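[09:14] KT: can someone run the structure on this one? pasting the chain below
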Amino acid sequence: MRCASILSLSVFLVAPPVSFSYAAELPEFVEISGGTFLMGEDRIYQEETKIHQVSVSSFAISRTEVTNAQFRKFVEETGYVTSVEKPLDPADYPGVPTDLLQPGSMVFAQPAGAVDMGDIRNWWRYIAGANWQHPTGPESSIDGLDDHPVTQVSIEDARAYAKWAGGRLPTEAEWEFAARGGLSRKAYVWGDTYDP
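[09:31] RB: done, structure tokens below
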């Protein structure tokens, strides 16, 4: 189902080889020295992979997420259409009324009160017309938000951007290693408390 891959995604780049010819202005990169760490965490989310030791080689990762301005340049130069901007094929969704198959995305919806945290329907809503240019729906805009992180892009969109920019997305291990910043055996990347 398409909704499973449409959640907002922070896009970081891993630095490409120095000899590459770049299509985009490269962001600032942070060097991460390789090492070994315990990846995974099953104390909070039982579906997570069991904790296991992983080694990563040194790499460089963009200091910040890809911005709206950077993603806009990619779209303008390539004519790229994101996953959530494409119409849904009724053949993939038999029995679903066509008026519900409009391009759009999942958008965070703050619950009004106490809700079951395990039921994503309490936190996310499908909004027709939500996309990277209109992140919370057709009435929203990224005007004036050029330096903010791009949202409402799928993993496929992020990979296409990274390829165009001459880099790649970090692996899960690289991302967790960088995000933990040397912390190990913590429930969250910032430590053990739920509220950072």
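[09:33] KT: thanks! The longest strand covers residues 35-39.
[09:34] RB: yep, looked fine to me
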